[in-house]
Design goal:
The chain has 189 residues and is an all-alpha fold. The protein has a domain at 55-183: Tetracycline Repressor, domain 2, CATH 1.10.357. It contains 9 helices and no strands. It has helices at residues 4-18, 26-33, 37-43, 47-72, 76-92, 99-105, 112-138, 148-168, 171-183. Helix 1 crosses helix 2, helix 1 packs across helix 4 (47-72) and helix 2 (26-33) packs across helix 3. The longest helix is centred in the middle third of the chain and has 27 residues, at 112-138.
Length: 189
């Protein structure tokens, strides 16, 4: 069984992705875990401390997923499809949204210490994706306007928006965005 600190982080991660950072409280955690708020404060004195732990948790989680994808696949399209599967998993898991998207949409209300970690996480994701796109263009299997970096930024932003729209409206919108992203990068044969 996971230790209490891990349970708190895991439960808070669920709340962030389903509600938002500013919309959950230590009382929500207390209710979900069946523990007293004092137990949460023992591990995370302030919500900022918990926010930093969450940002580090999400950064590790995304980093691990991208490393696994990179070890398993070599083909740029396979790498791209595996990345899309990560976002699809988010959409299919109880109507959650991307952790980066949550924190970025609440940029003005999350502590600066959390903002820095989330920005670093998103930069790492875009950098990884730009590498995939560069490999695809160099190999003649992907084409797209602009630089790999600018196209990676477009893809990440489109997927974040699609996840938010899918939760608010319908997963069909997410699938339409993904379809357009794929179609916009296909090479002409």
């Amino acid at each position: 069984m996971a230790d209490r600190k891990t349970q708190i982080i895991d439960t808070a991660a669920d709340l962030v992705q389903s509600k938002s950072y500013s919309s959950f409280s230590y009382q929500d955690l207390s209710d979900a875990l069946g523990i007293r708020k004092a137990s949460i404060h023992h591990h995370f004195k302030t919500k900022e401390d918990l926010g930093v732990a969450l940002a580090e948790h999400f950064r590790r989680q995304y980093g691990t997923r991208l490393e696994e994808i990179s070890r398993f696949y070599e083909n740029p399209w396979d790498l791209f499809e595996a990345y899309l599967a990560v976002t699809s998993d988010i959409m299919l898991s109880a109507e959650r949204i991307c952790a980066g998207g949550v924190f970025q949409s609440e940029h003005n209300v999350v502590p600066a210490s959390v903002q820095v970690l989330i920005t670093e996480m998103m930069e790492a994701i875009r950098e990884w994706l730009a590498g995939v796109l560069a490999m695809g263009r160099e190999g003649g299997v992907m084409e797209y306007p602009g630089t790999p970096e600018s196209h990676a930024a477009l893809i990440v932003a489109a997927l974040q928006g699609a996840l938010q729209n899918a939760r608010a409206e319908t997963p069909v919108l997410y699938r339409a965005v993904v379809g357009q992203l794929r179609a916009g990068m296909r090479t002409k044969s």
